[in-house]
Write a structure and sequence with these properties.
The protein is of the alpha/beta class. The chain contains ten helices and twelve strands. α1 crosses α9 and α5 packs across α6 (about 130-140). Bound molecules: 2'-monophosphoadenosine-5'-diphosphate.
Length: about 270
């Protein structure tokens, strides 16, 4: 019998994860089934309990359950604890282990797919919610020269920066408006694209040689990508990050690391 996995969300019908994991399973010869699982908004815990009882081996977690998954897990990996959010559950001998592969996926997409090493770079992280928190330590692990966190609510950026800086990392916080100078890498981890808007950053943060990545993706470039591209940046959507975080989850569950290049190309041509 094939091992069972799923992605839990609400809504979840749009999720590309089943396609990605089916492609990984085919490529690596792993026997598994990966499905979508719609959990009621007030029924995430009950859904996980039922999946465990049914012998499911693990699950990805998407909107709006990533914070609840971190509370529900009986153990957290260090990177999930740092993120305060879980996107990967591993059901192991009575334990529900919560992990977070989003940040590793982001860094893999920037460094390996976009061929943009982060070491020594000036990095700007927009946003200070769950998505930004998950990205922060994996970005810092690449040893950028500096990392600025900018957020609409600057106090949240300040809190994240203060915690990271106490470990000696070159991190500071800013409002969007007070940003100055050009950045090498800019990651939009705000939810602004969902609202069809762009964080009000000065256009001078972009320039030739800037990589501007939006964690969101869609059939069209996001408003952030359009704005960054109009001011000289190379732009990238979140599809590569999606495929890379899935590859990392696949590795957590199966101990096998899939090749992502062909799968990312397949997803782009299917989009
Ligand atoms: P996620 O898990 O996707 O990060 P979140 O934790 O709700 O979701 O965080 C959303 C982030 O997007 C926050 O940084 C939020 O800014 P605030 O902390 O000021 O709320 C940011 N955000 C949401 N809508 C935005 C908008 N229209 N413009 C700029 N930032 C926005």
């Amino acid at each position: 019998m094939s091992d069972r996995y799923c992605v839990i969300g609400n809504p979840v019908a749009h999720s590309k994860s089943p396609l990605i994991h089916a492609a990984f399973a085919l490529q690596t010869g792993q026997q598994l089934v990966y499905e979508r699982c719609l959990a009621p908004l007030d029924g995430f815990g009950a859904t996980v309990t039922a999946l465990v009882a049914a012998g499911c081996k693990g699950a990805n977690v998407t909107v709006p359950f990533k914070l609840e998954a971190a509370t529900l897990a009986s153990a957290l990996t260090a990177r999930a604890r740092a993120a305060g959010a879980v996107n990967t559950l591993h059901f192991l001998d009575g334990e529900i282990v919560g992990d977070n592969t989003d940040g590793a996926g982001l860094v893999a997409d920037i460094v390996r797919n976009a061929l943009c090493p982060l070491a020594g770079k000036r990095v700007l992280l927009l946003g200070a919610g769950g998505a930004a928190r998950g990205a922060l330590l994996p970005l810092l692990a690449e040893q950028p020269a500096s990392l600025v966190i900018a957020n609409r609510t600057v106090a949240s950026a300040q809190a994240l920066a203060t915690a990271a800086a106490s470990d000696g990392a070159p991190v500071s916080a800013s409002t969007f408006e007070a940003l100055h100078g050009r950045f090498d890498v800019i990651v939009n981890a705000t939810a602004a694209s969902l609202a069809g808007t762009v964080p009000p950053v000065p256009e001078t943060v972009f320039g030739p040689g800037t990589l501007a990545l939006d964690m969101m993706y869609g059939n069209e470039p996001t408003p952030f990508m359009a704005f960054a591209g109009a001011h000289g940046a190379v732009t990238r959507d979140g599809l590569g990050m999606l495929v890379e975080q899935a590859a990392e989850a696949f590795f957590v569950w199966r101990g096998v690391r899939p090749q992502t290049g062909a799968v990312l190309q397949q997803m782009r041509s299917a989009a």
